[in-house]
Amino acid sequence: MSTRKGRSGSFWRDNSLTLAFGGAFLVVLAFQAIAGRAEFNEQLATAGLQQVTFAQYLTSSDFAVDVTENWQSEFLQFFLYIFGTVYLLQRGSPESKELYKAGPESDRDQRVGEHAREDSPRWAGTRDWRQGLYSRSLGLVMALLFLLSWLAQSISGTAAYNAEQLRDLSQPVSWAAYLASADFWSRTLQNWQSELLAVAAMAILSVYLRQRGSPESKPVGAPHSATGVEG
């Protein structure tokens, strides 16, 4: 009996970071849907059109484009950061590798091939395409998620844009035409610039500022020049 409780507590503790942020994501997404529907119905009322139910709004292109345009920028941020930090450095930042480690690093440092340990992932010990794929799998998956969410944004954005065009008695546009439109790139670039700013701010501010106990910060007493050191 006590063993089961211990295992349950260990699961929640050991996965608390993912569970907390995953739960917060769902809560915020729900509130976004509530607020988005209210705003959308206000626009419909102003145009003298029939308002939509909550279920109708959840399946609408307006909700889809608002969600996916944020998702794609987040996945772009992580994709660029994961690949960029292989070679790019910031002296004094825990977000950077140590200055002498720029590049993909040696097999010994990465514990691949004959340097793999018993507890290493199985593909880390291979010498064929599996190791090459697995050694880049995190960045590749982030890139794939970015492309898929960007594609979803473009498709839902086209539908939302055309719905607005029809309400204004204007001609709808094709998917290719929407990709070249100011609406698409305005939605896209306003998210990209904010993500890039956030990464740059985190990289430089973590050189001089501290957060005790966080792996995103250096130890409180670490010198400003310490690079790649986590607290």
How would you characterize the overall build of this protein?
65% of the residues lie in helices and 0% in strands. The protein is mainly alpha-helical and 231 residues long. It has two domains: 1-51; 60-102 and 138-231, no CATH class. The longest helix has 31 residues, at 16-46. The protein is elongated, with a radius of gyration of 23 Å. The two termini are 37 Å apart. InterPro entries: DUF6766. It holds the Pfam family DUF6766.
Describe this structure in a few short sentences:
This protein is mostly helical and 231 residues long.
Query: What is the helix fraction of residues, given as a range?
Result: 55-70%
- The total number of structural domains is 2
Radius of gyration: 23 Å
Q: Count of helices?
A: 9
Oligomer state equals single chain
Report the β-strand fraction as a percent range.
Answer: under 5%
| Biggest pleated-sheet summary | none
Order of helices and strands: HHHHHHHHH
Tell how many strands the DSSP assignment holds: 0
Mean pLDDT: 89
Distance between the termini: 37 Å
Shape: elongated
Q: Uncertain spans, ≥5 residues at pLDDT below 50?
A: none
Structural class determined from secondary elements:
mainly alpha
